[in-house]
Amino acid sequence: MFALYVPALLFALLITILELTEVVALVFALSADVGTVRHGALGAVGGVAVVGAVALAFGAAIVAFPHLYLLWASAVILAAFGVFLFRSTLRSYRRSAAQRAGTASAPAGLRAVQFAGGFTVGAIETTEVVVVLIALAAAGYGFSALIGAVLGGLALVAATALVHEQIRRIKVPWLKLGATSVIFSFAVFWAGEAAGVTWPGSDLVLIPFAIAFAAAVRGSIGLIQRHDAAQAARAR
């Protein structure tokens, strides 16, 4: 019952670090004008706590469904989340390009805005983590997912304490690219298992899947960015 499934643990750890890293980065950005992260951090902690409490209260009910159906449901959930995260990854690359061009807007520095912004991003990013954790739990890896999420959270807290001055330099687009690739890889893997496919190398097939999806996602983003640039050039 409490056996660890390492791929699910690492997956949950990656997703937790990914999403909560963005929370930390945005809290620091919101706090840039006032020199303190306290108000934004309090808001983020509140958002994480609220969504986490809801998930603990109601999320476990999903594990009562038949395992085969849950594998299909998990594959569909992760595929849908992968599409969502792909769009989020694209937005991150666009924001990064806008910052390099000097066209990104400056963050607000009011205390109320800091708290509200921190709460909102904490709630949103934690919801995204919970969606993935519930999918992992539905596939029978709830304990591993929980351990991975806890380890990811602790690792991020420790890293933030050690490198808080450099936290805003973390390249979120690259983290999101990796996470998007892993999510699509698990979605295909679990859909195949639900359909009765015997994967060569078992879990090891996730490695070439992730590499292939990383290349596909990055290539797609590159095409979209070139299309954006062409449209911008025609608009001038």
Description:
- This protein is mainly alpha-helical and 236 residues long.
- It has one domain.
- It has six helices and no strands.
- Helix 1 (6-30) packs across helix 4.
- The radius of gyration is 19 Å and the shape is globular.
- The N and C termini lie far apart (62 Å).
Pick out its properties:
236 residues, mainly alpha
Please outline what is shown here.
This protein is mainly alpha-helical and 236 residues long. The protein has 6 helices and no strands.
Q: Flag low-confidence runs.
A: none
What's the end-to-end separation, in Å? Answer: 62 Å
Tertiary shape = globular
Number of strands: 0
Helix vs. strand class: mainly alpha
Q: Could you give the topology of this structure?
A:
Layout: H1 6-30, H2 38-58, H3 67-101, H4 111-162, H5 172-194, H6 206-235
Helix pairs in contact: 1-4, 1-5, 2-4, 3-4, 3-5, 3-6, 5-6
